[in-house]
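Hey team,

Filing this mostly as a record. A colleague (T.K.) asked me to run one chain through the structure pipeline before their review meeting, and I want the input and output archived in the tracker in case anyone asks later how it was produced. No errors, nothing strange. Just documentation.

Input sequence:
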Amino acid sequence: FEEIYLENRELFEDFSPKELVTETITQLKSQDIDIGNLVTDVYQFTVTQDGQFQYTVVTLVDEFLQRLDLASSVALTKGLKDLPVRVFAVKQGCFNQVFSHFPQCEFTFEPLAAFLKKQPDVMDSSRMEILVGALVSHGATAESGGGHLCGGDRANTCSLLQMLINTCELHEGNRQQLMKLKAPESVLAILTLNSTDFDVFSICTNALRVFLLDDDIRVPFGNAHGYAQHIVGQLEAIPRVIAAYHRSKKELEHDVAILSTLGLFCVRNEYCQQAVDQGGLEIALEIYGKEGEYKGNEGGMEYALLVFLKGAGANDSIKEKMAKEGCLEILSKIMLDLGIRDKIVAEIALITLSVLVLRISVNARRFVEKCGGSEAIINVLDAHPKSVSVVKGACLAINTLCNRNEDLRPAFLSKGIEQYLLEGMEISQLTECCKYTLRILGSTRIKLNCPWIGEKGDRIPRDQSL
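Output structure:
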């Protein structure tokens, strides 16, 4: 990039720096070169008369290392906003230079958290050990302060927790190492000691949830289930998180955090039961009752609520309780309101519905007959007819509703569901699932090409079968 930029500067003397960057990018793209992680923002570098590139981020790091104060820390953190800049800075050794002052200098915490965003590979086991040690130290500070994380301590603790989160995201190996170093224990200690005045609830719960992700494409199967067993089973995270929530300010950020966290904790039947027994369902319904206060939250609260219902609802006895408490009506309302506007909410709503009615016929009937369920599903399909994830979710929901309840089929057929599914079949990723759903519905508008059926509809003789 630098070489071509300099060549273009000689060829196009009247070009501005921005025009030179545009021309350079065009030439690279014409050669099918991936420039995704290159610093191409004209405001991120300057070029001297003798052709030397001076990058802004390197200057910011140099200034920070000279001063090691709050102002230079804030400036460096802002300068690390873009991923290409962070990638370049790491390659230039900037991360190593800043980390050499960690954790002695508290002003390194926030820039290091910024460096680590989507770059967890830069952390090795020795650095993770230092990080966990710093978290333990800040947990002890809170304990000596009677449960208060005041002023700078609170900000520094949040930055350390963000470092932990960014180290874990997209990296199963780092999660495994941090589990060995007992990082969740340190997070729960900080959460337990957190007071009502200085809240770090949201970031602590986020730090716990990050261990339960399965987002490393290099690892076919993560160990999230095993980590959940340790965090929830051995460390008793559910009652501790709920107790901390009751001490929090219970604002939108905290409400979303508690629902998302409890939902991910529910990986076993007994954890689902524990979450509800400890008051999780009451909390969820109370939060949904504040719906009017959260206008303009872009579905964040509703999405978190669906995560909780999907997680805890995996327990059959809890499904019935949720239905009695009006969760199916809430589900239908979310589909008709947010589901038609937001396909992400629509997808998780349909999957949550499938969970809540699975094996529970009374819930299936209630949703279709009393909650306008067929209308809700069809309206979502009408809003997102080309979305693969939404159509797959709708097929799953319809299959679960009607597979054991054939008398519910007319509720869908009479509203024209077949047309949506036939259109869905034209999309290659949806052909089989739409065809299967039409078969579940007993549709006559599709010819099923089954290997056990002859050309005229006769069964293939046994001696001719595959």
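Quick notes for T.K.: The beta strands are 45-47, 53-55. The longest strand covers residues 45-47.
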